Amino acid sequence: MIYIYLIVVNVLAFWLMHHDKEAAKARKWRTPEKRLWLFAIIGGAAGIWAGMIQFRHKTKHTNFQIGVPLLVLVDVFIVAKYLIG
Question: Name one Pfam family in it (predicted).
């Protein structure tokens, strides 16, 4: 069940990064950074990081450059701990 949750939250996080990048280019309503961080914290850090790389979005923000990869490591640790027991 955790796998389905992680897939869904990471796909949504990736989509949010895409949506925010497109909104930035079009000068339209943007996704608040707090929402991006929320998705990263609840398990979508890999999706946010993939979106950062794929869409070249938020890559100059130091807090994203450092914080998101650290959250990916935390997520990997939590999943590994869950699998091992």
Answer: DUF1294
